[in-house]
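Lab manual, section 2.4: Encoding a predicted structure.

Procedure: take the sequence of the chain (382 residues), apply the prediction step described in section 2.3, and record the output as structure tokens. A sample record is shown.
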Amino acid sequence: MTEETGKSDPTGKAEKSPPQPEVDGLAKANAAQSQHPEVLHAFHPVARLRKPRRRFPVFGILATAATIAFFVAALGALAVLPSYLIGSSPDLSPADRVRVTNDIRGFLLQAIGGVALLIGLVLTWRTLRLNRETHLTDRFSAAVTQLDATTATARTGAILALERIARDSPNDRPMVVTTLATYIRERRAIDELSTAPDRVPPDVQAAVEVLGRRPGARQEEMRLDLSHCDLSGCFLDFSNWRDANFVYSRLIDSWFTQADIRNAALAFAEILEVGFVGANAVGASFARSRVKGYFTGADLRNVDFHRSDLTGSSFERQSRDRGGPESPGPKLQGANFESAKLTNVVFRGTDLSKVKGLASDQLADAILDDETKLPRGVSRPK
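Recorded output:
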């Protein structure tokens, strides 16, 4: 009997269990959501931000039908309209009747020719547009091929080429964003990296910067998915990460200075030595994450720190009398600190009066001063 399968082998050799299929990021996200129901469906990697719009070739169908109807009506007008306009007038001789009929038909032919010229211009415009789309497709295919180049310089050039396509063609922006996000997740997948974080290579940093300054981010139908990847040492400053998904990612020695991370999902992540100075993080979630961040001047209204480990983080309000430059403390109205670990967290000069879920025993090892404002019912540690 073998321990692995429980079946006897006539050769006396232990049978090997069949290889287990590798679990991809989507399956991990599904499993994590079933284990932790507090992670909202909105944080799911494929959660939609808006309902997708269906597009049908209505213009082409209507244009073809209108063209056919126009030429049928034109032929009918050439045959019937002159006789209808002249009628049975007794004042016209047969020669005059023929001349007037020809004049009317000549006028109608000129009108039909003008409309036909307009239709030709429309069809030419359509042809040029199709040629442009074909050219964009060729550019996209060439750039994607270069993403597998052996040198970082060639890969960076391909990433910048994709950015140019996204700016030239709004319809292709979702495809470019999805391609670059997939490239980052594949190149920096945590499962394929060692436990010791290393800094991101220049091509991945270039892809991150392109996504951070992408146009049309407000109209995106899907969340930007950068989950389950290692972005340690990455600069994400002054960029748009609104609604982005960083669930289960590793962000060590990274920077979000003055970045827009509103409603971003940073739950179950490893976020150590990260600067959020001046960042707009309204509605973001750091639930169950390990966080050592610097939040001076950040907008943290309605941020979720539920069960996160904030050991060593700083929410301090800087002032000149403490020997540093004047800078405001973070906005924490509505922030949730329920069951958060606050060991050595700096709250000097911080207004905590309107936070939620904060208990007195959580502040036992936190660093406060006389200017720290606490919620009603929460006592200052002795």
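Check your result against the sample. The CA atoms of residues 86 and 97 lie 8 Å apart.
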